[in-house]
Specification:
heterodimer; A: about 300 residues; mainly alpha; about 75% helix; B: about 60 residues; 5 helices; 2 strands
């Protein structure tokens, strides 16, 4: 039987792991910024590989950080965790390298590549935001002994099962975005098939409605449901403002003059998806942080009263 | 809306997590209700009242 030693109470380990996650958050924001700059400034051409290397350079800090912490670690469980983290960081760096290179090549060959740029930039940012949640929940972390648990060492208990299902479906949506982007490379079909292909990107919107409807029906926790409704409302309003403002600027040919389809629904939709999920994560993280802070305060008050 | 959930909880020596487990909701929900940031639905208010063997009016007060 595999035991799962908890990190609770082991403040030295918790601190080290928290600082490691903080490093991941900072580097992921930096990485997303670099990817967006590469896309925004249309950097391309012979320096493709150098640019891709620049985009993943913050990742080296994460790998170095994990290796250094592993060298200082006496516990074999935590040591395994860092080894898993290094493996993950290396695989992630390779994937990001290839994706950024593809993005650089793509900006010169395709007109509408915003979906892909959003995907590439959103990947490290989302991982960073997920880690932010973990940062807020140090007491909820525990590390398992087998390789599976080492590669996926942290569990997020604050997210309800229904919400977790949405995150799994988001992973599927990423695959869809990639396929959608790859389909653009093929010759445009004709006839009825052309209509089918053109309407295909709309299908995930129905998927999203189904997933949300299911979530609202399944979520037992009414406060979580309330937070979810709020995040949908605010994200929709935000997207409406962004899309309206950019649409007006585009109508007056002030921006994206050469890209008439830049703000079509298939580009806005992924933006909505990501922002909404991230809003849920942030709200959850803030809530969890508040609960922890209040519990600490209560413990202090109770302790003082007992004395 | 104000409430005396914290007092009722303290009387029984329950943490927010324990109360959340008994109500089958998340700890955040208990925290949000307790701090007055979120007003519970009637079913949840009834569950709270039953759990503490009292009435809804004894727990919640709509006077500021």
């Amino acid at each position: 039987m595999t035991t799962e030693p908890t990190l609770q109470g082991n403040s030295a380990n918790t601190r080290t792991i928290r600082s490691y996650f903080a490093l991941i958050v900072v580097t992921s924001v930096l990485q997303s910024g670099l990817v967006l700059s590469i896309y925004r400034f249309r950097l391309a051409g012979g320096i493709t590989w150098s640019l891709a290397l620049v985009a993943i350079s913050p990742q080296f800090a994460v790998i170095r950080g994990a290796l250094r912490r592993r060298a200082d670690e006496s516990s074999s469980y935590i040591s395994q965790f860092y080894m898993g983290a290094v493996v993950f960081a290396v695989v992630f760096a390779v994937v990001m390298f290839l994706m950024t290179a593809l993005l650089v090549v793509m900006t010169t060959q395709f007109v509408n590549s915003l979906s892909f740029a959003a995907l590439v930039a959103a990947t490290p940012l989302t991982l960073g935001l997920l880690f932010t949640v973990f940062l807020m929940l140090p007491k909820r972390m525990f590390i398992g002994g087998n390789l599976g648990d080492v590669l996926l060492p942290v569990r997020m208990k604050v997210v309800t099962p229904a919400l977790r299902r949405i995150f799994r479906l988001t992973a599927l949506y990423l695959v869809y975005l990639l396929l959608d982007f790859m389909a653009k490379g093929f010759e445009t079909p004709t006839g009825v098939f052309a209509y089918a292909v053109a309407l295909l990107p709309v299908l995930p919107i129905f998927g999203l409605i189904w997933v949300y409807a299911r979530y609202m029906a399944e979520e037992q926790d009414e406060f979580q449901r309330h937070l979810f409704h709020q995040s949908i409302a605010w994200t929709l309003l935000g997207i409406l403002i962004i899309a309206s403002a950019l649409g007006r600027l585009q109508a007056r040919a002030l921006i994206f003059r050469h890209h008439p389809n830049f703000f079509q629904i298939t580009s806005i939709f992924p933006l909505f998806w990501w922002l909404q999920l991230e809003a849920v994560l942030i709200v959850n993280a803030v809530q969890a942080f508040r609960v922890q802070r209040q519990e600490k305060r209560e413990t202090r008050i109770d302790g003082a009263a007992a004395r | 809306m104000t409430n005396c959930l914290r007092v009722l909880r303290a009387e029984r020596g329950w943490s927010q997590q324990e109360l959340a487990d008994r109500l089958e909701v998340s700890r955040q929900s208990v925290n949000a209700v307790e701090t007055g940031k979120y007003d519970p639905s009637l079913p949840l208010a009834f569950r709270l009242a039953r759990l503490f063997s009292t009435t809804i009016e004894a727990i919640f007060d709509d006077q500021p």
